[in-house]
User: Which sequence fits this backbone?
């Protein structure tokens, strides 16, 4: 079932950062790349339904990147253009393509970002609150009229500096998505399963703990679901993998128009699939020209790698 | 199909170390424990078929440990008792229950171990060459009359010090089983999938790369198979998990009497299952009194955690 978008409205609202990245990985070194959590998540979700972006860019933001958003069919009514420089990040990945070192972070216009939802976004059923401060996540939630399924991401910075507001977010969302280290930091619990269950006790019915190349784990009413990661033989740039994962996941829920536990498990496989595609190139390059058939092919391969019957 | 054991013969021969361990984990600290790769692998495999042990112990080896082997129904015709002290190992695990520090290793009688197969073992179809020097693995292989499926394990020590002999082993076995760090060390290839495929080019049709709590990956003619790890909420002692995994895997192949790729995938799930049980207690304690029904129940839970339909 594909949701047919109504003119002017969106099925999924994604809020987060938009950045211009300079990245060195063992595969290559590139600068002035389109990045940020909202770029990856919206591009990934754009294959599944109508997505609205909430973010901020400065006057230096290249018009070709705005054009690229449009090519993906992303609704830009929530994209704020302001005077000043766009958020910039640069980093270097270790040989393992997992650990990375931040060389510089310049928040620039992102420092004064207050996400405002255009009227056409407020009745959207699905919300992905990407990695911004929990106060801003709450500000977005306050503008949503009848959210049906809300997912929040977070990071160690907010766990360390804004725990009370983050706890308010956690109590109000349907799903918290975070990585293994963040789950341990948030709960003080080393064991991932116990850590996820602890967070569920605080409110969200669902918790997804991301483990990078090792996949992810959903904690849910019917027990854990183990999300496999597609074993790539050539990773170019892991930046944004978690955001593509979240975007693909939310996209598939939108496509199904449902958020029950079975749909969620299926959607997590789509998330893993599109994340595996995204890291095969820098920035959003792998998503350009990608068709839904390519996603289905990769998903089919992933399923075949977890079925007992080879080729099933 | 269950293989009915013929009197005096065995379906699976396991060769490896037998040790007395002193282990500290974040859960507890225990000493004078029965350990060693062959102990874990044989106990795990004993639930599936008739297993013969090839190992060496000293005159200090407690008779109750020999009795325990017998309780598991392990054939001990290949167990050598010699004058001197049994191999001893002591180690401390980090909070993550993954990294560990060896406090002491005393090879003792294990230093002069030459594995000899009793006549009743030589026609066995399945062989698990546990972690001993590649020269000794070759010595065992030379005594096997018509091995149908041979799996070898290895470790960083042999990769560093006995690479030529190890390459001879690799060329002659059906499957190499090793952990992620060892695969990278052996091939110089960081990417695990490429690393496994490289090893396959050297000879073995199958390679299993173990990733501890993240499961394992099979590389095989029909492509990779991702073996999930059961997410435990209470690990007591991870020692021997890889050996239990290998033992359970081989055991299920014995039980099926087959080693095709579908059987192999299924057997890897049994391996993951029994490994997850083993680490819930120190030494072989979790296997004592365990029934095959308990293994099937845990396997059912693991399958439910990887199926798209919850409870399927």
Assistant:
């Amino acid at each position: 079932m594909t949701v047919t978008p109504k003119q002017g409205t969106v099925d999924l609202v994604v809020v987060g950062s938009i950045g211009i990245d300079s990245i060195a990985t063992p595969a290559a070194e590139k600068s002035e790349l389109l990045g940020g959590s909202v770029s990856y998540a919206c591009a990934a979700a754009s294959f599944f339904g109508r997505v609205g972006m909430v973010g901020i860019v400065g006057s230096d933001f290249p018009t070709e990147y705005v054009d690229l958003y449009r090519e993906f069919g992303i609704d830009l009514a929530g994209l704020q253009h302001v005077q000043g420089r766009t958020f910039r990040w640069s980093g270097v990945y270790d040989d393992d393509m997992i650990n990375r070192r931040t060389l510089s972070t310049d928040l620039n216009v992102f420092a004064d970002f207050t996400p405002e939802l255009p009227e056409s976004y407020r009745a959207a059923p699905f919300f992905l609150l990407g990695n911004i401060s929990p106060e801003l996540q709450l500000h977005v939630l306050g503008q949503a009229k009848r959210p049906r399924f809300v997912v929040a991401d977070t990071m160690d910075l907010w766990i360390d500096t804004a725990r009370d507001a983050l706890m308010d977010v956690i109590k109000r969302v349907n799903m918290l998505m975070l990585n293994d280290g963040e789950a341990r930091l948030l709960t003080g619990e080393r064991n991932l399963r116990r850590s996820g269950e602890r967070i569920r006790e605080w409110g969200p019915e669902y918790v997804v703990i991301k483990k990078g190349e090792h996949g992810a784990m959903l904690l849910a009413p019917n027990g854990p679901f183990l999300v496999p990661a597609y074993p790539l033989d050539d990773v170019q740039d892991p930046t944004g993998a978690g955001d593509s994962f979240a975007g693909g996941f939310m996209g598939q829920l939108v496509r199904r128009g449902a958020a029950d536990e079975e749909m969620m498990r299926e959607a997590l496989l789509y998330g893993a699939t599109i994340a595996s595609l995204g890291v095969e190139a820098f920035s959003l390059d792998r998503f350009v020209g990608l068709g839904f058939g390519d996603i289905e092919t990769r998903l089919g391969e992933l399923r075949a790698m977890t079925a007992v019957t080879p080729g099933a």
User: Anything to note?
Assistant: Chain A has ten helices and 13 strands. Chain A touches chain B at residues 26, 95-97, 190-194, 197, 211, 214-215, 217, 220, 222-226, 228-229, 231-235, 261-262, 265-266, 269, 301, 304-311 (CB under 8 Å). Residues 58 and 205 of chain A are 37 Å apart (CA to CA). Residues 12-304 of chain A form a domain with the UDP-N-acetylmuramoyl-L-alanine:D-glutamate ligase fold (CATH 3.40.1190.20).
